[in-house]
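Local shape tokens:
==================
===
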Amino acid sequence: MSYMITYVPSAAKAIRKLDRSTARRLLDAIESLASDPRPPGSIQLKGGSGEFRIRVGDYRVVYGIHHDELVVLVLRVGHRREVYR
């Protein structure tokens, strides 16, 4: 069972702004969410509406999972000091 990955426009824009090697690492991690949307190390955020986050070096990917539609929606991507603001 494979999930489809979708991005909100601001998350896609944030990835495009990053240098090529960082963007590639983030995209590899995001693509792996298609086969396992809750990989080891993913954490459910408190106070949100079922959002999760994964670490990729100093960067964080915040995403939501829609199990009924088999969709992983990437909500925010950014450096760890900025992504939660």
